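Issue: ligand-bound run for zinc ion - logging full I/O for the record.

Environment: standard queue, default settings, no custom constraints.

Inputs:
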Amino acid sequence: MLDVCLLGTGGMMPLPHRALTSLMVRYNGSSILIDCGEGTQVAIKQQGWSFKPIDVICFTHYHADHISGLPGLLLTIGNTDRKEPLLLVGPKRLEKVVNSLRVIAPELPFEIKFKELNEAEEHFEVCGINFDAYRVCHNITCYGYSMSLNRTGRFDADRARSQDIPLPYWNRLQKGETIEADGKIFTPDMVLGPARKGLKVTYCTDTRPTPAIEKYAAGSDLFICEGMYGEEDKIQKAIDHKHMTMYEAAEIAAKADVGEMWLTHYSPSLVKPAQYIDKVREVFPRAYAAKDRTERTLVFEEE
Ligand SMILES: [Zn+2]
Ligand SMILES: [Zn+2]
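Outputs:
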């Protein structure tokens, strides 16, 4: 089970009724944040989610609307008496950028760890979630992120019995452990059926369409993507500023065959993003013009 909340849907600047784009995910007692622009902590407060369990913060890139909220958020997390380390993930120069911001938030009761992204595509595992970071196409280095929960096959007790696998090993095999005992090797595939469908959320903002987005969005239950402009004649503006129109986002969603798409990172000039959604749905029917704090609990298909 994955709780997902798009804390804000704005791009460039926070507006009175539109916070900057940021995603918060809760899983198994941990919280993960992607992007932290000015005022993100206000949106977390409005959502009523807690600051203390934030274990990971990922940054897409170092434009102010995606990172300038960090010092204040760190101080707030510090005030919750958090002692466990916090992992920050982001493109190259991560430590330098964060340390510059930390000049105004120097004293924290927890350690900060850094994971700097240097390759075009990187895979890592934190908090039991599989992360994929993939470089996209903005006017500075920028990454999208996918978070996946894999799911093993169903445990087959009949198979375990027919192979005379001792009962005390069943649970360990089910959890993926390989066991060597009594001169025999027992592997999980001896007792597990085919892998079941997991959960996948892909987040991508501040980029032109690029093949990496489609690759990582593929098979996502939820694809959160920028749709900076709804007016079709703003395509040139999108190209010039390395952003996307809603229709370009919808084309990626259609090719990647995602479960649903939430649009975000709207231009401040875009007053009513939803007014374009009918046209967007001609390209990809399961598109939504997300609002601040649009949330969803994703659950495995079969228990
Ligand atoms: Zn932005
Ligand atoms: Zn940007």
